[in-house]
Amino acid sequence: MRPLPRPTRRQAALLGAAAVLCAAAGGSALTGHLGVALTVLAVFLAGLLGLVLLLARRLGALLAANRKTQRDVRSVLDQTQRRVLGAVEEMLLAAGDRHRELTDALAAQQKAAAAGTDRLLRAQTSEVEALVQLFQGFTPRAPMPSSGGFALNPTDLLDLLHLIRSRRPRLVLELGSGTSSVWIAYALEQTGGRLISLDHEPMYAEKTRSALAEHQLTGVAEVRDAPLRPVVLDGRSFPWYDVDAVADLRAVDLLLIDGPPEKTGPDARYPAMRVLEDKLADAATVVFDDAHRHDEQQALRRWVETIEGLTQEGEALGRHAVLSYRRIVRQHGPVDEISSRSSG
Ligand SMILES: C[S@@+](CC[C@H](N)C(=O)[O-])C[C@H]1O[C@@H](n2cnc3c(N)ncnc32)[C@H](O)[C@@H]1O
User: Fold this and answer.
1) 250 CA to centre of ligand 1 in angstroms
2) Which regions span the lipid bilayer (predicted)?
3) What is the pLDDT of residues 101-140, one digit of tens each?
4) Where are the domains of the chain?
């Protein structure tokens, strides 16, 4: 058991005073002074009553303070609880939103992936169909180099070879050699035409020459090295094939524009029609590969707007555009000459 705490000085004084009063009352009663004893007892009781009242007041104040502290603590607890609940609710809502966003994004991606796969499958089917038709037209004398990627797709090749068979060009000029050169050469071997292919990369020019040799097509097709040189058109310089490589060419009746590659600079293929218009036959066909690309779309639009006699033909298979060129010859008859002489 813990010992009782020592009384304070005040408590000791009060206890002392009570003891003195009790002793005085007892002493007075024993000595027969009953009046004094009663008076001392009355003083003692009055003091005791005052003490009890004081204690009651103190206890009341303590209880009131205690209740206030309890109210304060409860209010702080309530506020904290509300804040925690609010934060949890916000977190749950944010997590719900995030979850919904993620679910939506996932669903959109799945849809896009499914559409992409579907497109790819359809495109692959078209390419396989085109490849089957291409090989039905020829029996190659050596393994064919791969098509697709850097080269014309089978669908584009199929359309190109169909144009060669149906329009029977005598001279085909190709910008950018590769697999297509071999296919074109096979087609021209049957129709009796000739192919000149330009390449700015000596290594790829050589590769195409070897392929043509392997397929015994060097009598039909020739690959010329044509390094890129600056060509200035409308005050703008473009890296384009060295024009010396085509200096001897006349009456090109099919022009295939499949170079220079996009990476050589913006609007890389724009100079083609501007530089080569004079080399075309009076009636010629122009096949423009990668016509879906932004730069090529721009070039196509500007050519058709500015070159007289150049029109785009209807929808083509694959990613190339077909254009038809008819040279417009301005007739200066005697009337024109006379009127120009008299006006001068
Ligand atoms: C669009 S490609 C021309 C491809 C060609 N007309 C064909 O369809 O096969 C343009 C350039 O790519 C380069 N090239 C040719 N063969 C290549 C190969 N196997 N890999 C990467 N580039 C090649 C050549 O320099 C060519 O001029």
Assistant:
1) 25
2) 37-56
3) 999 999 999 998 988 888 888 888 989 999 999 999 889 9
4) 11-62, 74-137, 141-326
